Amino acid sequence: MSSRSPMAADSMSVDLANLYREESYTDLQSASVRVLIPVLPDGSTDTSRAAMYIGDTTLMTQMGPIPVQFPLEAESLDKAFALFPEGVRGAIERLNERAREMAREEASRIMVPGKTPSPGMGGMGGGLGGMGGGRGKFIID
What residue ranges in the chain does DSSP mark as E strands? Predict the structure, then answer.
């Protein structure tokens, strides 16, 4: 999966060589796996490409629920579900690292008396600094 830049409606096209059918499976508790099955333009399964598995869950945090999606390197649905807990742990590690990175960035913006705040800082207490403790602690409900 790649991130794409926004396109103007008049320059949009469909990549017929990269079509997928999506199926979703869940345990009705916390685990969901989306399966992206490659298809040909006529809708039939494209056996020359492998299916992709994506884990999907919601993490409950002190700041509220955070939806999380992560790739699962699997060859089948049962293997994707077997890898699901490891995928969640990896996603939590990446989220924690991002939270630490954001905290470091915010800490480097210490206000010096008599200096004008940088644009977009919002003054004292702006950004993550006003959120209090507990940053980076993600709890799975």
Answer: 19-26, 32-39, 52-61, 64-72, 138-139
Q: Is residue 47 predicted with pLDDT exceeding 60?
A: yes
Pick from 60, 62, 84: which is nearest to 72 by CA? Answer: 84
Find the DSSP H helices in the chain: 77-107
Q: Identify the CA nearest to 136 among candidates 88, 103, 91, 87.
A: 103
In a domain, 43, yes or no: yes
- pLDDT above 50 for 118: yes
Query: Is residue 1 predicted with pLDDT exceeding 60?
Result: no
Report the distance separating Cα 123 and Cα 100, nearest Å: 21
Cα(19)–Cα(86) distance, integer angstroms: 28
Q: What residues are paired with 34 via a beta bridge? A: 24, 54
Q: Which two tokens stand for residue 113?
A: 């008396």
Integer Cα distance of 56 and 86 in angstroms: 13
Dihedral in degrees, nearest 10, Cα atoms 117, 122, 124, 130 = -150
For 28, the domain range is: 19-108
Domain count, the chain: 1
